């Protein structure tokens, strides 16, 4: 009998749009990441995790088959791989956002239904074929290409395309425009599989939960700031309604009993609006600080 496998094995995109942000997020969560683009595996001994650098498209395959326990990939790539084996999305990671959309030469199409009997080129043929099926749009010929799909219509292998749109600049430059509703909204996600029978399931589960908590900590630290202010007791209820915090704000007494100090996490995007509203309520000494790291 071989020893049970106890090291958490995690897939990380090795190139493309998601790679750098994925490594940044893991570094921020306290994991060691590779320095050299040629490294295929990195062992983080302190945290007991092995990172495998793989093509973003292949991450779902490794995790779905149980060879790797966790992976970072794109939601669109995950759905395109259609792994039936029980890999599942654990959480969105807040970067690599894009939409997956239909597009055609300017002025040529207005709705997806017009594609019946036509050819649509894409690198995401699994995702696209499933979507046409759920929409009840039959008889579309999905043409698989490896990239640069914007050129396919002009070159005559397709009538329309379905592709990742971020800024829309690529489509515009190719003389194309989107039509119909977005097929999906994507971002980088964390996926988990079922592992293998010879894994030490308890150790893997403990380290998986730790990694998830760390990534959530990074997300919160990126999305929230800490706000401190002083307010007169009679205005406290109204102020707390503006800054309810994640669970409940901290209220501390001040030497002047008519006043209290409040400390609460608030969404970073609302910082200035909240400071204005608190000031109007009579709050003073309003201080904002960034959150370096956290466990929620
Ligand atoms: N501007 C973008 N271009 C491509 N993919 C993007 C963009 N923004 C976000 N993404 C996301 O990145 C993932 C695609 O990564 P991938 O590395 O396969 O694409 P790529 O940059 O087109 O790489 P390559 O063409 O070299 O295979 C998808 O989840 C996609 O939604
Ligand atoms: O809306 P935008 O901001 O212009 O970004 C979207 C474009 O970027 C990606 O292409 P990439 O540069 O990866 O080339 P590829 O088609 O060869 O994959 C994607 O396939 C789109 O073409
Ligand atoms: Mg690409």
Number of domains: 3
Query: Architecture of the largest domain, according to CATH?
Result: 3-Layer(aba) Sandwich
**Ligands and ions found:** adenosine-5'-triphosphate, 1-O-pyrophosphono-5-O-phosphono-alpha-D-ribofuranose, magnesium ion
Order of helices and strands: EHEEHEHEEEHEHEHEEHEHEEHE
Share of helix among residues? 25-40%
Query: What's the β-strand tally?
Result: 15
Portion in beta strands: 25-35%
CATH class of the largest domain: Alpha Beta
Instruction: Classify the secondary structure makeup into a structural class.
Output: alpha/beta
Give the strand order of the largest sheet, numbering strands 1, 2, ... along the chain: 2-3-1-4-11-5
The CATH topology of the largest domain is what? D-Maltodextrin-Binding Protein, domain 2
Structure report:
- The chain is of the alpha/beta class and 296 residues long.
- The protein folds into three domains: 8-95 and 188-199, D-Maltodextrin-Binding Protein, domain 2 (3-Layer(aba) Sandwich); 98-186, 3-Layer(aba) Sandwich (D-Maltodextrin-Binding Protein, domain 2), CATH 3.40.190.10; 225-290, Alpha-Beta Plaits, CATH 3.30.70.
- Helices cover 28% and strands 31% of the residues.
- It is built from nine helices and 15 strands.
- It has helices at residues 19-28, 59-64, 75-81, 125-135, 151-154, 169-173, 201-223, 236-242, 271-280, and strands spanning 8-13, 41-44, 49-54, 70-74, 88-92, 98-105, 119-122, 141-144, 160-165, 176-186, 188-192, 224-232, 250-253, 259-267, 284-290.
- The strands form three sheets. Strands 2-3-1-4-11-5 form a six-stranded mixed β-sheet. The chain has a five-stranded mixed β-sheet with strand order 8-7-9-6-10. Strands 13-14-12-15 form a four-stranded antiparallel β-sheet.
- Strand 2 (41-44) and strand 3 form a beta hairpin.
- Helix 3 packs across helix 4 (125-135).
- The protein starts with 7 loop residues before the first strand and ends in a 6-residue tail after the last strand.
- The model has no long low-confidence stretch (mean pLDDT 96).
- The structure holds adenosine-5'-triphosphate (ATP), 1-O-pyrophosphono-5-O-phosphono-alpha-D-ribofuranose (PRP) and magnesium ion (MG).
- Adenosine-5'-triphosphate is lined by residues 16-18, 56-57, 74, 76-77, 96, 98, 147, 164, 166, 186.
């Amino acid at each position: 009998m071989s020893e049970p496998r106890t090291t958490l094995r995690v897939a990380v995109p090795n190139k493309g749009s998601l790679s750098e942000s994925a490594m940044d997020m893991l570094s921020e969560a306290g994991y060691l990441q590779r320095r050299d683009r040629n490294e295929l595996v990195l062992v983080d001994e302190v945290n007991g995790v092995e990172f495998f650098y793989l093509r973003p498209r292949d991450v779902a395959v490794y995790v779905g088959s149980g060879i790797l326990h966790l992976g970072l990939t794109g939601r669109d790539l995950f759905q395109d791989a259609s792994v039936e084996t029980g890999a599942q999305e654990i959480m969105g990671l807040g970067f690599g956002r894009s939409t997956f959309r239909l597009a055609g030469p300017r002025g040529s199409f207005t709705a997806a239904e017009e594609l019946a009997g036509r050819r649509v080129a894409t690198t995401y043929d699994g995702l696209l074929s499933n979507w046409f099926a759920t929409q009840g749009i039959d008889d579309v010929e999905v043409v698989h290409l490896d990239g640069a799909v914007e050129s396919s219509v002009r070159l005559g292998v397709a009538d329309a395309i379905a592709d990742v749109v971020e800024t829309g600049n690529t489509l515009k430059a190719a003389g194309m425009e989107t039509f119909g509703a977005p097929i999906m909204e994507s971002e980088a996600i964390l996926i988990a599989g079922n592992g293998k029978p010879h894994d030490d399931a308890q150790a893997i589960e403990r380290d998986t939960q730790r990694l998830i908590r760390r990534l959530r900590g990074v997300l919160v630290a990126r999305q929230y700031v800490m706000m401190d202010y002083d307010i007169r007791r009679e205005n406290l209820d109204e102020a707390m309604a503006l800054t309810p915090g994640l669970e409940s704000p901290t209220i501390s007494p001040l030497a002047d009993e008519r006043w209290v100090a409040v400390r609460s996490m608030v969404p970073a995007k609302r910082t200035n609006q909240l400071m204005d509203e608190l000031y109007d309520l009579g709050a003073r000494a309003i201080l904002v600080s960034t959150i370096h790291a956290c466990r929620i």
